Amino acid sequence: MQHKKKGSNAERELLFMFFDIGFMAARVAGSGSSTLPTPDIIVIKDNIGFAIECKTKSGEYLNIREEQIKELETWEKISGHKAYIAWRLTGKKWYFVHFSKLNKTKKAFSIKKEEIIQKGLIFNDFIKQKKEDR
Predict the structure, then answer these.
(1) Is 27 helix (H, G, I), strand (E, B) or coil?
(2) Residue 88's beta-bridge partner residues?
(3) How does DSSP classify residue 28?
(4) How far is residue 40's CA from residue 32's CA, in Å, rounded to a whole number?
(5) Could you tell me if 85 and 64 are in contact, meaning their C-beta atoms sit under 8 angstroms apart?
(6) Side-by-side strand order, sheet with 48-55
(7) Quick one: which H or E segment has residue 54?
(8) Could you tell me which residues are beta bridge partners of residue 45?
(9) CA–CA distance from 97 to each of 2, 29, 84 (Å)?
(10) pLDDT digit string, tens, across residues 76-96
């Protein structure tokens, strides 16, 4: 239960980070346990919209089940908006990367800590990019 609480708290943290800079953001009830493709957070402002799958795992790598990645693909296809992985690393920095940048393994998709630091964007840079994408 502690793991679930840690994840919920991280989702709320990110939710308020988006709200504090003028985006509307909502946590999706039942994400991870729904039969529908449901990301953790949906973020919208003006013509900018995207979904976030939040992760807070410590360690040198992050694994995400193949089913979760397929749900993000489905969400993108139907909604017309991109879906990203947000991984909070030690020190409370969030890194954002499109799920397509993860590496396929036999049972999951994976990214190393050093890879997300290299390929991903920290919060402010991610927001700047989203505004430029408009």
Answers:
(1) strand
(2) 94
(3) P
(4) 8
(5) yes
(6) 24-27, 41-45, 48-55, 82-89, 93-98, 121-122
(7) strand 48-55
(8) 48
(9) 26, 23, 6
(10) 999 999 999 999 997 779 999
Number of domains in the chain: 1
Two tokens at 99? 């799920």
The residue type at 6: K
Note every long-range contact of 27-33, with CB atoms under 8 Å and residues 24 or more positions apart, other chains counting: 32/68
The CATH number linked to 78 is: 3.40.1350.10
Q: Which residues contact 118 (CB under 8 A, 6 or more apart)?
A: none
The helix (H) or strand (E) run that includes residue 2 is helix 2-20
More confident residue, 6 or 4: 6
For every residue of 61-73, which 3-state class applies, written as one string?
EEEEEHHHHHHHH
Tell how many helices (H) and how many strands (E) occur in the chain: 4, 9
Q: Which of 32, 21, 37, 102 is nearest to 11 (CA)?
A: 32
- Structural domain range at position 101: 2-133
Q: CA nearest 20: which of 12, 10, 28?
A: 12
Q: Nearest to residue 97, comparing CAs of 71, 81, 124, 115?
A: 115
Which pLDDT band holds residue 1 (cuts at 50, 70, 90)? very low
